[in-house]
Every structure is written in structure tokens, then in C-alpha cells.
Hints:
7 helices, 10 strands, globular, 5-stranded mixed sheet
Amino acid sequence: MTFAIITDIHSNIVSLQKALSIIRERKNIDQVICLGDCFPLGPAPKETLKALQSIKNCVFIRGNHDRYIIERLWTVTHPCLEGMDPDDPLCKDIVANIEWSAKQIGATGNTFLKKMHVAHRVQVKNTIIEFTHAWYQRDDMPPTLEEALNWKRHVKAARPNINNFIFVHGHIHTPRFEKQDDLTILCQGATGLSFDGDTRGAVAFLTVGDTFEWDVIRYTYDHTATIKELEKRKPPFYENLMKTVRYAAIRNDL
């Protein structure tokens, strides 16, 4: 089987459209996997929702930012956002952005989010692939190598015929390729909002048979269009986001 993987779009419709065009060029895709964080923070939640709804045969996995919309994080007193101080103005701006994004996608988007999976597991021959946003027991921190090894031991005990284990996650916005014996942990980076200093978007193709191939495509897209849309719509936190798009790094130095 061949899986096409997108992740951490964050309402960057320009980059998402380019990723989907790359996927459409491939003729052998069995399933598309979206690893979550679809909507906050970028400028185009409504357009992103429409594009995602149009993907055929796609499994959607919920990210922590998607969960914040479902839980209406902005209504919580002193909301905790990935360890940030609730009184930090940056934290308040991000929470305000989540509320803005929720209003943009409306009830249709909220229903879309609620139908997402926490994780998705596939067996191909003697290989198990686990797809999550971060870690199936939490959505805001990916597994350590030891946690993934422990996951493998549990799966192996239940399915002794499995001899290859692949764990694919998003969330960190930076590439990861970590391997120990018959366990491999993979992350392509981010489709819509890179943090690794490389301003290109990322789409990945995982082909699994007797062995596996991991093909990450880094592609250029029109950053100027995304930045202009941020300037035009001015969602909360937009000035910080413009720098993140421009430099592919978390930049809060306004």
C-alpha cells in the first residue's frame, strides 16, 4: 500500500493546494492520511475546510489545535496552551486566534472535527503502521523512543506475526527519522507551517510491502500570497504568523 500524508496545515490554503496537486500527480495512492492541526492559526480556515472535504479516501486524525476548537478553549478560565503561561499575551493571542478560526469554519467545521480519529492503525503483510498526530495517549507531545518501543512490545504480544513496526506522527513541524531494530518513527515536518528553517511545505509518501519506502517531498509555494492574506484578514496573532511563514521558525520578536 502507498499512503500520501499531509499534516499541520494550520489554515495555509496556498500550501495545502500545492500539496494536494502533488498527490494528484501520483497514480498509485491507496489512501490519503491527514495527521491533524488543520485549522488554527493561518488565514484561510473556510477555504482549508472546503479543500479537505474534497479529498477522496482520506483518513483524518485530530490534532491538538483541532481539539481546542471542539473544546472551545477560549471559554476556559486561564486556558493552558502547551505549557504556556495563560497570562502571557502571546498565549492569549493564540487562544483568540483559535476562537476566530472556530467562527470561520462554523458548525460544519465543528462536525468535521468531531468525526476525526485519535489514531489510525493499518496492517500491511507483516508490518503495522500507526498514524497519530503526536502520541495516541496525548496529542501535544510525540512519543519518545522508549514510549514507542513499549508500544511495539504491546502490539507484538497481541500480534506475534508482526515483524516490522512504523509509527508516523505530525505535530512537531520538523522532520524525524528514528530507527531501532524493527521500529521506525517518522515525521515529514509540516505541510502548512514549517519550523525547521526550511520554508518549503512537506508532503510524504509511505509505501509498505515486504519493505517500506519513505519519500518526503519538500515543495515551494507562494509564501507571499499567504502573508498577504494574513495582512488582509488580520486574524489574532497574524503578525507573528507572518514571520513564521517567512522564516520557517517560531518568531515572536515583533
